[in-house]
Automatic annotation (TrEMBL):
Pfam families: GPAT_C. Transmembrane segments: none annotated. It comes from Theropithecus gelada (Gelada baboon). This is Glycerol-3-phosphate acyltransferase 2, mitochondrial. The gene is GPAT2. GO terms for cellular component: mitochondrial membrane.
Amino acid sequence: MATMLEGRRQTQPRSSPSGRETSLWSSGFGMKLEAITPFLGKYRPFVGRCCQTCTPKSWESLFHRSITDLGFCSVILVKEENTRFRGWLVRRLCYFLWSLEQHIPPCQDAPQKIVESTGVQNLLSGRVPGGAGEGQAPDLVKKEVQRILGHIQASPRPFLVRLFSWALLRFLNCLFLNVQLHKGQMKMVQKAAQAGSPLVLLSTHKTLLDGILLPFMLLSQGLGVLRVAWDSRACSPALRVLLRKLGGLFLPPEANLSLDSSEGLLARAVVQAASAPLGLWTGALAVLRSLWSHWGCSRRICSRVHLAQPFSLQEYIVSARSCWGGRQTLEQLLQPIVLGQCTAVPDTEKEQEWTPVTGPLLALKEEDQLLVRRLSCHVLSASVGSAAVMSTAIMATLLLFKHQKLLGEFSWLTEEILLRGFDVGFSGQLRSLLKHSLSLLRAHVALLRIRQGDLLVVPRPGPGLTQLARLSAELLPVFLSEAVGACAVRGLLAGRVPPQGPWELQGILLLSQNELYRQILLLMHLLPQDLLLLKPCQSSYCYCQEVLDRLIQCGLLVAEETPGSRSACDTGRQRLSRKLLWKPSGDFTDSDSDDFEEAEGRYFRLSQQSHCPDFFLFLCRLLSPLLKAFAQAAAFLHQGQLPDTEPGYTEQLFQFLQATAQEEGTFECADPKLAISAIWTFRDLGVLQQMPSPAGPRLHLSPTFASRENQQKLEQFIRQFICS
């Protein structure tokens, strides 16, 4: 690898015999850019702000004005200056002295408060079925409450917490070069903690390190000991005792029982009274043992922790309940169109139950369950938006899509990420970044030496392509709007021109704005909620306009002025209806649909610029692993053995995806996560039905899709969005 990069240091990009460069598209940087910085101008982009529509006060008050001026700090870098003492002995014992000075707040009288809570008191007084009034003595119920509470938590032991923090600090310094934390993001969390309300942190659990890094980081920044919710089935009884003394929380097994079980009634009441303190040493010893076995003998690595902007849960609840409108299920929205029974897309939003259904969630009212699901969408959208894109994701994307000029395209893709308001987690010399990225991907690529000291980087077939596809999926949130728009255009052109037709032939066709809106809506409804990350307060038609604007901004679509139509840029003559002018913020569904008639005369063409065909293909390929997995899942319907449990049918589908990958080379689709996503989407679409049985819920094939004809219609509907 060093030979290739050093050999090219003083050379210019080679051109093909016809005089054109062999890259897929011109990056605009050439080979002059030797260093990459995560800045656009003077400042780096700020990511992860809360929703301005649902939490406007938090959006304003909990934002640090000088956040772009603040840099990063390493939370595991502890020196003499981090303690109150000075001297040569302090420099050698700074880790131990630092752990002794950490603030550990005293444990409050939580058991008494939980016993006095409304839910538990209702059970004690017998006002709830299954309470003390139905044959149970109040004293026995109180003892049961104490037992359940003892299973959930224990008073943290300050000595054990400090001792464990000291050992963890030493271990993290052996494992990492640094653990970076943005000072501005931490300032916002500290400002929210100073308000006096309980602080709840939700993690996306990207790695095993979350359970030890996050609590340690927050403890080191003066936020005290956090409490982490932990599944009691994941560790031994002895480990549970230790973790409870370190601040761990364990849900009792009765909390996940069905709602009609009297055993789980009291446990759920205690859990609801004890919830607010989420967050700490989640299975720390097991994680440490695993990390030491994997990385204990290898070179140290770097890590980075991202924190989204905090917001007030009380403010969100008040504003979210006031803007709820009517929604329909995916089956109601999309199934008639898939089967050809109608062509018009209903003018309503999609409601998808993609959150796990557990006992504590089912114990809530239907309105509160809906609130939890929509809150999850907001939290997930903010967490994904705050995560920085790493160099391995960019390199995996370039290798997966067979780019030829890694240096130039790596620079171009980095700039495009920054231009879209996302952050990158790397900087430095361009060639050093490529060397480092390829060294991290060495298990999934092959390096072939060719003439003049160059190296050819080839992805390894099989699991290597699957892993590259997983890494490249980190770029999907960055280009998601453009990717949805490109696949929608592909679906619009599918019935008009051959898929392999020249770009010039496709550019001749006129695409109406209403047709584009319809295709975008269809694809948007098909995509899973956790991938689309559409906020519940955002209208689908607003998202359609955003997608169309992105396609115009990136140069893929150009407006075509037809004779007698109003110019697309003539904003002075645009008429806004009174409904739109007086519509509450965030509710544009009706007004947008009322004004669709004005868009009937607006048409677009595909741009004929030289970079557009390859950029269009790049955007389509970002969604192709998911869409191909959905299409193969539709083709598998007539082969699958149903009825079956959800895990059993998931395993059947995954084996089919693996077999198809061996035959067709589509290894990027052979992912168990894609199989799960396809089954969940088909269940919401009404293709699969979940029926109760004595052995548990089982999946059945819907009578509507029992016929081979309707299965083929479903597969054709999905494949129209796939660009070969």
